[in-house]
Specification:
Blueprint lengths: L20 H30 L6 E4 L4 E7 L3 E7 L2 E6 L3 E5 L3 H4 L1
Antiparallel strand pairs: 1-2, 1-5, 2-3, 3-4
Length: 105
């Protein structure tokens, strides 16, 4: 015969846990480098939006800079220029600026 007989390998009785170690390490790295910081940043953003009050100076995700004139349940009124008020959704507020920032612009 030209071809020798092939025999199946014997099955090991104990599972090889070391093959799962790379997956565990990758998950831990993702948790500490991506997921955890993103959850922390989202929590800070929610707290900042919840603490908005009249007179705060903010920027929106669209780039508008203004002073808060009215805070509602889901909308905020921003004065972006004298006598010019726009209404934006609360979740579009990106940054709370220090007082007096608008005067320096």
């Amino acid at each position: 015969m030209f071809i020798s007989s092939a025999y199946a390998a014997t099955a090991s009785a104990s599972p090889d846990w070391t093959s799962f170690a790379p997956f565990v390490v990758i998950f831990v790295l993702f948790w500490f480098m991506l997921i955890r910081p993103q959850m922390k940043q989202a929590k800070e953003q929610r707290n900042m939006i919840a603490a908005l009050q009249k007179g705060d100076e903010v920027t929106t995700t669209g780039g508008l800079v203004g002073r808060v004139t009215k805070v509602g349940d889901s909308f905020v009124s921003l004065e972006i220029a004298p006598e010019t008020v726009v209404h934006v959704q609360k979740h579009t507020i990106q940054t709370l600026l220090p007082k007096g920032t608008i005067k320096t612009l």
